[in-house]
Amino acid sequence: MSEISLSQLQDADRDAATKAVEDAMDGDLDLPELTTAVRSLPASWVVEILDRLSSKRGAVLYRLLEKEQALEVFENLDPSLQGDLVGALQDDDVAALFADLDPDDRVELLDELPATVARRLLQGLPPQERALTADILGYPQGSIGRRMSPEFVAVRPEMTCAEALRRVSEHLDDAETVYTMPVTDAHRVLVGIVSLRDLMKAPVGTAVAEVMQRPLDVRATDDAEESARRCADLKLLALPVVDNENRVVGILTVDDALSILESADSEDQARIGGVEPLRRPYLTAPVTGLVRSRVVWLLVLAVGATLTVQVLEVFEATLEQVVTLALFVPLLIGTGGNTGNQAATTVTRALALGDVRPRDLGKVVFRELRVGLLLGILLGSLAFAVTGLIYGSDIGLVIGLTFVSLCTMAASVGGAMPLLARVVRADPAVFSNPFISTFVDAAGLLIYFGIAKAVLGI
Questions:
Q1: Which end of the chain is more exposed for a tag (fewer CB within 10 A), N or C?
Q2: In whole angstroms, how far apart are CA 374 and each of 30, 250, 328?
């Protein structure tokens, strides 16, 4: 049993409240008491509870929420969990929920649903909402057009600030945001942006053209992550989205931009670690889904490791002459792989932040070469001292020189891979990890045994 009762939920902290509701769902349900308790919780707490429940139990809990609370909770769930919940709720509940969502949120949910369910939900929408949603669905997957909101307030440059504020007040209920607005001409072409603060601060008779700022925008077909990064870098509450003729077709709000960046960062971190992103909370992911997210990478890395085995086979005679060399193989290839992955992770992050671009390949490689060389000298000096005392100066020199060469090579390759991936339009996180693991292991052994043969004369 939980440490607190359901009647104490409102005064409990988040973790205690979550545990209490989970325990109540696992035990004998007292629905009236649970209903009262859950309705007293913030929406963000309910989202965290649903993240930990199965779809069936989540649907039971979700039905206990009040209508406005239920919509807020649903909007904040991961799209994959929204899809699970849609499958567990009754058709009438789903239709009402779907109609209340913003068009961009609807599109995210539709991407998670079977085609037949998605088609049925779209057909049940009012004509105007269906048209808005269809417009967003018309943009390519991965573009910012799929994540923008078509519900916005636009003002004209010839309007007075008082007229613009009246226009804003008329659309408070149906606009995604009113804190930053596009300024358009008669043909919806973007000519500037203006903030609500500037409109309220200016004298009522001032023209919007006098207080608006230069237009900042993204194209609807631009990459979603790059557009979200631009919005975050510019520190804008909303960024206009335009078509090829510079007409405003939607806006990207800062909360949607941050959501895109968070999702992209989670995806990159997963792939750097050699797994596919789950796209749902861990506890709600099926075991088969966890297996699928890992098995492909394990197979790729296992196939890549056969190259290392072949290199060892080539130098089998060398190992037979100096068996001591075999002791250091795991240490050296492990250090090489770690050095390469460190460089790749650093450069991948710099790419995501816009600090470096593919054209900076030469600068990045030269910088990482120097970093790798210094790391190699530090590690190699230590290895020479320790190994030389135990196995003799010849072996110590082999290990020390290998560290210097291996770290220099691994850092250079690791720094270059993300940039080369971007050039060939591959995900840097996907491209870098398996290549580094395979190439650095095999090349590192060639360097190691080459140095050993030269120093030891074998």
A1: N
A2: 65, 50, 21
Task: Show the beta-strand stretches assigned E in 185-339.
Answer: 190-195, 218-219, 238-242, 248-253
Max CA distance (Å), the chain: 92
Please return the burial class of 6, using the count of CB atoms within 10 Å of its CB with bins 0-12, 13-18 and 19+. Answer: buried
The bridge status of strand 248-253 relative to strand 218-219 is: unpaired
Query: What is the strand order of the sheet 238-242 is part of?
Result: 218-219, 238-242, 248-253
Question: What single letter denotes the amino acid at residue 53?
Answer: L
Residue 282: the pLDDT is 66
Rounded to the nearest 10°, the torsion over CA 204, 210, 214, 219 is: 50
Q: Which among 70, 218, 209, 237 has a CA at the least distance from the CA of 145?
A: 218
- What is the rounded distance in angstroms from the CA atom of residue 124 to the CA atom of residue 99? 8
- How far apart CA 11 and CA 40 sit, in angstroms, is 10
| Residue (of 109, 121, 48, 120) closest to 84 by Cα position | 109
Reported as a pLDDT band with limits 50, 70 and 90, residue 1 is: very low
Domains for the chain: give ranges and CATH numbers: 6-138 (1.25.60.10), 161-271 (3.10.580.10), 286-456 (1.10.357.20)
What tens digit of pLDDT does each residue of 60-97 get? 788 778 878 888 888 888 877 888 777 777 666 677 77
Q: Exposed/middle/buried for 124, CB within 10 Å: 0-12, 13-18, 19+?
A: middle
Q: Indicate the helix (H) or strand (E) that contains 206.
A: none
